[in-house]
Amino acid sequence: NAGVMQNPRHLVRRRGQEARLRCSPMKGHSHVYWYRQLPEEGLKFMVYLQKENIIDESGMPKERFSAEFPKEGPSILRIQQVVRGDSAAYFCASSFGTGGPETQYFGPGTRLLVL
Amino acid sequence: KNEVEQSPQNLTAQEGEFITINCSYSVGISALHWLQQHPGGGIVSLFMLSSGKKKHGRLIATINIQEKHSSLHITASHPRDSAVYICAVKWETSGSRLTFGEGTQLTVNP
Fold it and tell me: Which chain A residues are within 8 Å of B101, Cβ to Cβ?
């Protein structure tokens, strides 16, 4: 029973390029959360998605960032025209989506470095 | 403002010591999570609590809803317990999003 998978684990981009981060939730999980951890800072919520729906994107920067969770395939966090300040660890978590409080299972993270 | 505060920020202990990490939050929650982040960066969910106490091996988590406070205890600490321990809450009014404390860096020396 594989856990939450994220790829790539490490991603290097030059300023202005696009970064695509992928997250495959645990089997049976239909809810996905994206969190960002800036260097020397705590984790911050970005976006919460269910299959084909964005439920809460209140933590997403207004520009350049987007997320999707299609009916088939992984969830994608997309960062356009990356800047040095986007360098961070991006974690994905998933849960069953029972409607009540439940454990979120975290992936290993993608470390993005913008040169 | 909804806030989560952890103490201490850093904690150094000798192997075998009993360890307590504290978490306080500002308003009502529906659940509180304790997470462990290893030096390599991976995050493991240790507990989810909405009341009372939970125990898993040498780890114990308690929560007092009235006082808006939770503690994570580690008995008979070991160097492999060295990690960052993070408290995260799900506010009653914020759906499923988690708000995180800044974390407690624990170092257990042999």
Answer: 42
- Which of B5, B48, B96 to mutate to test binding with chain A, by most A CBs within 10 Å of its CB? B96
For residue B69, what are the β-bridge partners? Answer: B24, B64
Q: Would residue A97 be called left, alpha or beta, if left means φ above 0 and alpha means ψ between -120 and 50 degrees?
A: left
B96 neighbourhood in chain A, CB within 8 Å: 31, 33, 48, 55-56, 95
Mutate to test the interface with A, among B2, B4, B43, B98 (most CBs of A within 10 A): B43
Tens digit of each residue's pLDDT (9 = 90 or more) over A75-114: 999 999 999 999 999 999 999 887 677 889 999 999 999 9
Span A35-80, pLDDT tens digits:
999 988 889 999 999 999 999 999 999 999 999 999 999 999 999 9
Average pLDDT over residues B69-78: 97
- Rounded Cα distance between B85 and A36, Å, is 17
Nearest beta carbon to residue B45 from set A48, A105, A108: A105
